[in-house]
Write a structure and sequence with these properties.
The structure is a single chain. This protein is of the alpha+beta class. Helices cover 21% and strands 38% of the residues. A hairpin with a 7-residue loop joins strand 2 and strand 3.
Length: 137
């Protein structure tokens, strides 16, 4: 697979949108494959300045959520991409957002979120390290 023609892996910032009080995760459908669920994520841009800001921007564009980044979760490297995961405590859900006509969103519990994103290994790995994950033994 390699770096897909890039000299260095792509930097992707991923938000894990949470409602901590209810223990829920907001998942969204993929734009390319509407039958698959993902977490909001996308490429870091110079205008973002920080990785955290990129994760927040992606959450707003893709899921219509506003909130606060509360925790860095992990960095996961693949041959073509470096993923940076951040927990985002959701404070507001916009009724209309940039990709609202291209995606669905749904609040689900941790177990259901993990099942839905399991097809994308890196997303499942990031979610398993979130504060909603059961304690590891």
């Amino acid at each position: 697979m390699g770096t897909k023609g890039r000299e260095v892996p792509r930097v992707v910032c991923c938000a894990i949108p949470l409602a901590s009080t209810s223990g829920k995760v907001l998942v969204i459908t993929s734009r390319k494959r509407q039958d698959l669920w993902v977490l909001p994520k996308g490429g870091w841009e110079l205008s973002d300045v920080t990785l955290e800001r990129a994760a927040s921007r992606e959450a707003l564009e893709e899921a219509g959520v506003r909130g606060n980044i509360t925790r860095f979760v992990t960095t996961i490297n693949s041959p073509s991409t470096t993923y940076h995961f951040y927990e985002l405590e959701v404070t507001t859900l916009d009724k209309d957002w940039l990709e609202s006509r291209e995606r669905r969103r749904e609040w689900v519990d941790y177990g259901e979120a993990l099942k839905r994103v399991a097809w994308k290994t890196e997303l499942a790995q990031g979610l398993m390290l979130s504060t909603l994950a059961p304690p590891r033994r």
